[in-house]
Amino acid sequence: MRTAVGIGWRPEIDLTIERLAGVDFVEVIAENVCVEHLPESLRVLRARGVQVIPHGVGLGLAGADRPDPARLARLAEVAGALESPLVSEHLAFVRAGGMEAGHLLPAPMTRDALEVVVENVRIAQDSLPVPLALENPATLLSWPGNEMSEARFLTELVERTGVRLLIDVANLHTERVNHGLDPAAALAELPLEAIEYVHVAGGVERDGLWHDTHAHPVTAPILEVLRMLCALRRPPRVLLERDSDFPPVGEMAAELAAIRAVVTRTAVRS
Amino acid sequence: MTMNPWLPPLAYSVWTALVLGVAIGSARRGGKRADRRRLAELDLVEYAFVSGGAARAADVCVLRLLGTGSLHLSRDGQVVAARTPEPGAAPDAPLRVLDEEYGGLPLRELRVRVAASPEIQAIGTALLAAGLVARPDAGPRRVPRWALFATMALGVATAVAGFVRADDGAASARPWVGLLLAVIGIQACLAGLLLLGVFGERVVPTAPTMRRLIRMRRDEAAVDALGAGGVGAVALWGLDRFPDPVVKEIFRRNAPAPGSRDPRSTWCGSTSCASPQGARAGSCGGTADGCGG
Q1: Are A248 and B84 in contact (CB < 8 Å)?
Q2: Where do the domains of chain B lie?
Q3: How does pLDDT run across B94-150, given as a tens digit for each residue?
Q4: What is the extent of the structural domain holding A170?
Q5: Are B72 and A250 an interchain contact pair (Cβ–Cβ within 8 Å)?
């Protein structure tokens, strides 16, 4: 199996991405795409056969509220318009009591929370025309009283709903720095066969905390987590996320090449 | 042997034409002689400036940075810098302008601001100091175009009237009147023609620079060496020659609006920055239909 390598599509670098060699697929922030006015660049990429995966940030599937049917309908519409093979969202909550957090906040890793998320995911799956993949978030804090690890939480979620996974290796590194998580142990616990794709992104450490900025170069420890994952199971797709402070084209291409090299080398060895 | 009566006025006309040409040329150069050594050392942006003014020089700066991947241009015409300039380094004008903004700038605005930037304006000043371009504030530039055309029309009419009058000169009490009118008419036409080349706010290369440009334009290898990826051709001819149709179309859609000239700038496009034609032709090689292809 060949691993597709992609990059996060952002409007500021649409033309750069179109012309970047070695981009097999892209991911768009679903909330930023207007179906009535699909960006020309996405149409060009689609015409070239490049897959486009809508990545939601606003469903809040780990929240206590049920997912908003209008948001789900819009996500489904975007997936349809882009002929996407799947959509993705976060294992996070973004609002409560009618207030928007503006951030992807971690869910409590408890049995009660799992029940809520299972139900939310089922509702989302029923509304979407394509499979849904959930991403492990990057967190600066965790809830007290967690009853299980995030990997265990995701595993049970996969078993009960059949939801697919989007594993962010940069977020695993974030958890390692911020909460002492062992990425190898987490990966060993996850149902890797459920992985649809992998996120890789840069960040920066400040005052002992890792900030998953998506605005810094991808570091060696993050690529090392990717290597650990690939050694266990080669993922179908790996995607580089870059949201701001875009580097020169050459550096972007070099980061994609580095990701591809890790995937290829590890797969040969494994 | 009798002298042809037309010879003195004709000789006088030729002489005054030469004097006018030299005088206007000198005025355009600000009284300086063209620096031939400097002319041989012009770089890409300077060639763009002498060919198409500050507007084209700005476009070449942006295109060059796009070519090196230092800028990202979106299909919507938003430009973001690929990297913040290093502290203490002397960045290109577009990078410095973009560094002052968060989230980049629309291409249209970037083009105007780069053209008005100290870096590009300084090129015009340096080229003027070297006698390679005409003064932007030379007196003839203040003469409106219609006045020059009217002068030429009047000159032709006066010259014709003078020739007719001179034909009947023998029968006239003042035979020299016809010749005088003919000379005045011819001189008016010549002055009008010479001044037409510098009306408005154009950046006009002086004669040695124009000869250099013509030689460059004939030398394909030199054009390629001037700037990679078609940027050299843009410097000499305008955006029409840019080989990338997508980028060309983005530039066409994001041409500076008429009258969008930065008031702080002295130097402008190859035609008036304040005219709709200038907005396009300033960087598009003077085509009437913009840069699209």
Answers
A1: no
A2: 36-61+107-136+202-284, 144-198
A3: 888 888 888 899 999 999 999 999 999 999 989 988 988 877 665 555 567 787 788
A4: 4-269
A5: no
Chain B contact probe: residue of A9, A13, A15, A243 with most B CBs at under 10 A: A15
Vertex B275, ends B270 and B281: CA angle to 5°? Answer: 40
ipTM of the predicted structure? 0.87
| Average pLDDT, integer, range B148-167 | 83
A87 neighbors A133 (Cβ within 8 angstroms):
yes
Q: Is B70 within 8 Å of A248 when comparing Cβ atoms? A: yes
Give the CATH number, domain containing residue A182: 3.20.20.150
For chain A, the domain total comes to 1
**31-90 in chain A: CB under 8 A from chain B:** 39-41
What does the angle CA B184 – CA B187 – CA B190 come to, to the nearest 5 degrees? 155
* Average pLDDT over every residue of B51-72: 92
- Alpha-carbon gap, residue B280 to B260, rounded angstroms: 12
Which residues on A lie below 8 Å from B246 (Cβ)?
15
Say yes or no to pLDDT of B293 above 50.
Answer: no
Name beta bridge partners: B269: B53
3-state DSSP assignment of residue A195? strand
pLDDT tens digits, one per residue of A137-171:
998 888 999 999 999 999 999 999 999 999 999 99
B68 reaches A (C-beta below 8 A) = yes
